[in-house]
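Notes from the 1:1 (GR / supervisor)

We went over the backlog. Supervisor wanted to see one worked example end to end before approving the batch request, so GR pasted a single chain during the call. The sequence is below; no edits were made to it. Supervisor asked that the structure be written out right there so they could see what the output format looks like.
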Amino acid sequence: MLLTDTTRWSRSARIAIELANAGCRVSAVCLARRHPLLKTRAIHQVFPYSGLRPLDSLAAAIEAAAPELIIPCDDRAVQHLHQLHVLARMSGAAQDHIAALIERSLGPPQSYPIVSVRCSLLEIAREEGLRVPEMQAIHTLDDLRSWGAEHPLPWVLKADRTWAGGGVKIARTPQQAERFLKRIPRFFGTALALKRLIVNRDPFWLLPSWSRWMPGVIVQSHIIGRPANCAVVCWEGRVLAGIAAEVVSSDGPTGPASVVRIVDNPEMMLCAEKIAHRLGLSGFFGLDFMIEEGSGISYLIEMNPRCTPLCHLRLGEGRDMIGALYEQLSGRPPQATPCVTQNDMIAYFPEAWHGNKEILESSFRDVPEGEPELIKELLYAAPNSTLLARAAKQLGTYFKVH
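Structure output shown during the call:
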C-alpha cells in the first residue's frame, strides 16, 4: 500500500496503523517535517512530498515502492493522482503501469472530473434518484442574484478544492453571500500562500496564487437539520463495507466533526452504493448529508473522494472497511480483529479533546493505543502550539473567507 497525505491529517496515521495490523505493508508520501505518519511504527518506508513538484515526488514514490494500491488521504492528494494519471497516459507505454495503478486504486478516469467538482457530483446523484438540495453553479454576482430571486434564505455557498469547512459559508443575507463570493480570491491569494509556506512549510499554494487560479463555486438551499456522514470502501463499483454516523459535536456549523454517533441508516448507505456503482469507484470515499428536521429525510450535500475519519474504525462485519479491503486484495480473511467498541459514540482523537468533557467521557475515545510517539505528536506537538503559528493563525483568520 502507498498512502499519500500532502497535509498533516491525523487520519492517515490511523489508516496506516490499521492496514498494518491487518497484514498490509504500508509506505507513505508525506511532508518531510512534523507529519503524524513519521511518528507511527506502522510505516515501512516514507517518501518526501514536494509542494513545488508534487507529481514528480508522487511518481518517484510509486516507482520505488511498487505498491499494489494507492490510498489518498486528503483532497489535494486526490487532485495529484488525477493529474498524474493524465500525464502518465500522455507519456505512453513507459508510464502505462502508473496510469493502470491509479485506475485500480480510484476507478475509471471518467469519474475523476465528477468526484472533484461538487456540482457535477450532485448532478450525478440527482440522476440516480438521490435527494440533494436545490443548487446552482455560481460564476458571477449576476448568477448569485438570479438564484436569490427564486430561492429563500439562508443559502449555503461552497468553493471547490477546499476542505474542513474553510470554503463554506451559510449566508443569511444576500450581502453575506456576495461578500463571500468576492473574498474567495483572497483565500487562494499571496498572503495565505506565504503563511502556508512559512508556518506549514508547504509551498504548494504559491503556484495557484501566482496563476490566480479560481475554484468553482456552488450555492445550495439550506437544509434545516442535523449533519451526518457515511464512509465506505468499494471495489470496481461495489461497496465492500461502510459506516454511517450522525455528528454530535463539530468545529462550528460547517467544520469537521469531533464526536459522532454510529447509526444504522440504510438511506445513506444506499446513496454510497448508487454513486460507487454509477462511477465504478474503488478505494475509500465519504458522503456528507443533512438529515432534515421533522421528516428525518437524508439529503446528500457533498462527497469526499478519499479517506475520512470513519474509515479506520473496525466495528465488525459489514463495518470493517480495513478488513474488507485486505480480503479483497489478498483473497483471504484478515487476522481476527474484535469490534473495537460497542459504544455507538465515537470521540475522534485529538479533535474531541478540547470540546465538551461530558460528551468525551461518555464516548469511546479513539486513541491510537500502542503508538506513544504519535499520541504525543498529536496532543502536544501540533503546529498551533508555537508562538509563530498562533500569530500566523491570526493572520489566517484575517484573510479567511467569511
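Supervisor's comment: The CA atoms of residues 152 and 384 lie 39 Å apart.
Batch request approved.
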